[in-house]
């Protein structure tokens, strides 16, 4: 029964994270990206705050870490998630998910730089393999895309880098709060900030919003932003950290498949071949740094997504 529960949770998380990227693409078709991201958080926040109230979980970080809670609001929620949906206005949702799947690699690099974390040969091999493979995929996809393609790539890579840095800073500060505390208030504040900025600078026209885009924002907020977080948290409780991290190897395949099925678009054959060393590199990065089952983290400072990573999404 325990293995069945892990399998069900793993499936739910991979499907949620995999579909998140397509939902962001659909949302951005008629809704400005910043405003759409703000509304996504506004929709998710009431559910997270309600869970905090029901479980009597504090909304504020411990004294001495509340300024960092504001940093998380801006640099973990507001900026990176806006960059994600902005990036998808220039690149495919499948390619966006492949870029974000490199979160474990980015976290390893950030840990080496900011935490002086020790690495082993296998991690280094995985790191190099993932970086080279991702670079080849981006170069290959750019050959058949317009110049603006790089704007999307830079936005998505920046989101990954910012998330990884915030993760390492959370770890450095021993910021160990519950998943609800980490998400609820920063999510709500980020929603207010982005909605306000989007309203004044993007000037959204509600009459131009399509039903598909509105439903996608609701899906991102209520399902991916709330249900996805709880499922990943539950998965981390029942599985090892390594098993939970394998989500990063699966959700890009779901994202690519969904985009191919719905839009008839898929990344090039050459890029598909490069996915093999990319997945192998991410796997080595995760596998060589896995923790024993008896040292699972009950709480973590990196639980938000699609994403994501961390990790959560979610994208």
Question: Could you walk me through the main structural features you see in this protein, from its secondary elements to its overall organization?
Answer:
This protein is mostly helical and 315 residues long. The chain has helices at 2-27, 33-54, 66-87, 93-100, 103-115, 121-143, 149-172, 179-202, 211-238, 241-245, 247-263, 269-287.
Helical/strand content category = mainly alpha
Indicate the percent of residues in helices: over 70%
Question: What's the rounded overall pLDDT mean?
Answer: 86
What is the general shape?
A: globular
* Major sheet description: none
The end-to-end span amounts to 29 Å
Q: Work out the number of β strands.
A: 0
Spans of at least 5 consecutive residues with low confidence:
291-313
The gyration radius over C-alpha positions equals 18 Å
Count of DSSP-assigned helices: 12
The ordered H/E elements are HHHHHHHHHHHH
Beta percentage is: under 5%
């Amino acid at each position: 029964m325990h293995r069945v529960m892990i399998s069900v949770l793993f499936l739910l998380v991979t499907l949620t994270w995999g579909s998140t990227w397509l939902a962001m693409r659909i949302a951005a078709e008629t809704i400005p990206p910043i405003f759409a991201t703000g509304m996504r958080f506004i929709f998710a926040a009431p559910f997270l705050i309600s869970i905090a109230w029901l479980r009597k979980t504090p909304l504020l970080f411990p004294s001495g870490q509340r300024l960092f809670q504001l940093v998380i609001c801006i640099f973990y929620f507001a900026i990176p998630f806006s960059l994600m949906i902005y990036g998808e206005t220039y690149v495919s949702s499948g390619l966006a998910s492949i870029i974000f799947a490199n979160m474990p690699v980015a976290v390893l690099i950030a840990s080496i730089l900011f935490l002086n974390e020790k690495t082993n040969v296998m991690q280094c091999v995985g790191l190099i393999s993932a970086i080279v493979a991702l670079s080849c995929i981006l170069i290959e996809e750019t050959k058949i895309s317009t110049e603006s393609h790089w704007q999307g790539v830079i936005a998505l890579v920046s989101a990954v880098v910012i998330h990884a840095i915030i993760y390492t800073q959370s770890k450095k500060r021993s910021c160990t709060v519950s998943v609800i505390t980490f998400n609820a208030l920063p999510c709500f504040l980020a929603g207010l900030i982005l909605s306000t900025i989007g309203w004044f600078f993007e000037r959204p026209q509600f009459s131009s919003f399509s039903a598909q885009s509105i439903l996608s924002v609701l899906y991102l907020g209520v399902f991916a932003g709330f249900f996805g977080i709880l499922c990943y948290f539950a998965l981390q409780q029942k599985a090892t950290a390594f098993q939970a991290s394998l989500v990063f190897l699966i959700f890009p395949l779901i994202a690519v498949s969904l985009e191919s099925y719905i839009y008839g678009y898929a990344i090039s054959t050459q890029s598909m071949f490069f996915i093999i060393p990319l997945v192998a590199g991410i796997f080595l990065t995760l596998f060589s740094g896995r923790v024993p089952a008896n040292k699972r983290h009950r709480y973590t400072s990196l639980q938000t997504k699609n994403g994501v990573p961390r990790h959560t999404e979610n994208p």
